[in-house]
Structures are given as C-alpha cells and as structure tokens.
C-alpha cells in the first residue's frame, strides 16, 4: 500500500474514532486507537488544561498528528463542565493536507460535590 493511502486510511479511522468519542463523551478510545497505530504520545498539559499530543511519521515527508485537550472554560472552582477538543491533521512536507476537528462538553455533575453547603457562618 502506498504511504499516502495508508495515511489517509489512518486519518479516516481516527476521524471516526473522534466522532465516536464525542457521542460517548469519553476520549479513551481515541487514545487507544492512536497507540494501536504506533503513534507516540506526549503530555503537553498546562496548569489550565489536560492535553496530549500523538505523532506518527508514515514516510520522511508524511505524518499524522492528533491533539487532545480538556479544559474548564470558567476556571478551576466553577461548576461549568469541562470541554474536550480533538484535532487530527495529515501533513505532507510543510503543508496540511487535511484536518478534522470535533469536541464535546463533559457531562455536568449533578448537585454540589463540595463541602461548602455544609459550612455555616451564622
């Protein structure tokens, strides 16, 4: 199989995997799929987000990269649900041949999960 055709197939599988993760609200299958194809994983998290980068070189000038990021849009102590975002890109030389993006809002947790409601300042 030609390297370009192989890269296109992996791109399509990962695009499908991303859509499935967004339907299921779970990113773990995307991680599993990238590692099964032989991608290398790098933690690129910051103090404000959890982020992973997966890279695979198909040929000297042909590569795939998948980015995953989960972050709280309102800061660490607010009740808004986290947002998860994916992007997979196919690169040939210095050109992005194609890219695909999708994401989901993580389900909000019902009720107050903290102890603040138990404190009384009266």
Distance between the termini: 73 Å
Helix content: 25-40%
Biggest sheet details = 5 strands, antiparallel
Number of helices: 2
Give the integer mean of the pLDDT values.
86
Spatial shape:
elongated
- The arrangement of helices and strands along the chain is HHEEEEE
Number of strand segments: 5
Q: Report strand %.
A: 35-45%
C-alpha Rg, in Å?
A: 18 Å
Q: How does the helix and strand content classify structurally?
A: alpha+beta
For the largest sheet, list the strands in their spatial order.
1-2-3-4-5
Unreliable residue stretches: 111-122
Tally of distinct domains = 1
Oligomer: single chain
What does this structure look like?
- The protein is an alpha+beta fold and 122 residues long.
- It has one domain (3-118).
- The chain has two helices and five strands; from the N terminus they run H-H-E-E-E-E-E.
Question: Mind sketching the topology for me?
Answer:
Layout: H1 3-24, H2 28-36, E1 40-43, E2 49-59, E3 62-71, E4 83-92, E5 95-105
Antiparallel strand pairs: 1-2, 2-3, 3-4, 4-5
Short summary of the structure?
The chain is built from two helices and five strands, in the order H-H-E-E-E-E-E. The protein is α+β, with helices and mostly antiparallel strands.
